[in-house]
Write a structure and sequence with these properties.
This protein has about 250 residues and is α+β, with helices and mostly antiparallel strands. About 45% of the residues lie in helices and about 10% in strands. It has seven helices and five strands; from the N terminus they run αααααββββαβα. The model has no long low-confidence stretch (mean pLDDT about 95).
């Protein structure tokens, strides 16, 4: 997926998030985010949209200090509209900005395009968090879910400063295979002594997981458990559990 496709996906995900949020009790717990209720989830997502918007507008060359960005949080009655307004502003900024413009990002791609991709996926996952909190079964379109897995694997090596357990993703050649059942997507992850590597490949691995693309993504971001019957798991399940425990961002 390219920058404008990510902008389109972000816009769709914001629309879905807002639509679901209109039916939600703001005081309902969000099990995927321990300690959060729906109001805190919305406040977090709306704040992140505005935080990313500021960085892109300013083509920031380093992460801004909290004191550099003024973000007004809404009154309770305005939460959903506040989320929609911030999301729309972010999409407009991203569409109007050169995706190849260099800027700070916490991941692999140090350009504006990092943020259209990152925000599309972050919004999709938090929209899924909201749906799970309401007892619904979230769905993410296959192309976006496949890109989300790619993005996650590409960014994990850069996340150690806020997710220190990622440094433990080493080994002696142990391997994990992920296979989509609803689209042409598969990955092989290999744990090496200096870190992990990954590729789009079909190989025999120590453990293999089969499911829909969006289910695999939600597994990798610890929103669904390996024990969920939607997953077919073959081989060393403890290796999969090791990966999920230490790759969480």
């Amino acid at each position: 997926m390219e920058h404008l496709a990510h902008c389109d996906a972000l816009e769709r995900e914001i629309g879905q998030f807002v639509s679901v949020a209109k039916d939600a009790d703001l005081l309902s717990e969000v099990p995927a985010c321990p300690g959060w209720d729906v109001a805190k989830l919305i406040r977090h997502q709306g704040t992140v949209h505005r935080w990313a918007d500021w960085h892109v507008q300013n083509l920031a060359q380093e992460r801004a200090a909290k004191s550099d960005i003024v973000i007004e949080t809404p009154e309770v009655v305005d939460f959903v509209a506040w989320l929609a307004d911030g999301g729309a502003a972010l999409v407009a900024t991203l569409r109007a900005t050169d995706p190849e413009a260099p800027m700070w990002a916490w991941g692999a791609d140090q350009h504006v395009a990092f943020w259209s991709r990152r925000q599309a996926h972050e919004t999709a996952i938090h929209r899924a968090d909201l749906e799970l909190a309401l007892g619904r079964t979230p769905s993410i379109e296959p192309s976006l879910a496949i890109d989300g897995i790619d993005e996650l694997l590409a960014n994990i090596p850069y996340a150690a400063y806020f997710a220190p357990n990622t440094a433990k993703l080493v080994g002696n050649g142990e391997s994990i295979h992920l296979h989509c059942t609803d689209s042409h997507g598969e990955w092989t992850i290999t744990l090496g002594q200096a870190g992990f590597s990954w590729e789009h490949a079909h190989t025999k691995c120590d453990v293999a997981v089969r499911a829909r693309a969006d289910q695999l993504l939600l597994l990798l971001v610890n929103r669904l458990a390996p024990s969920d019957p939607r997953f077919e798991i073959f081989g060393d399940s403890s290796l999969l559990e090791f990966w999920l425990k230490n790759s969480a961002l």
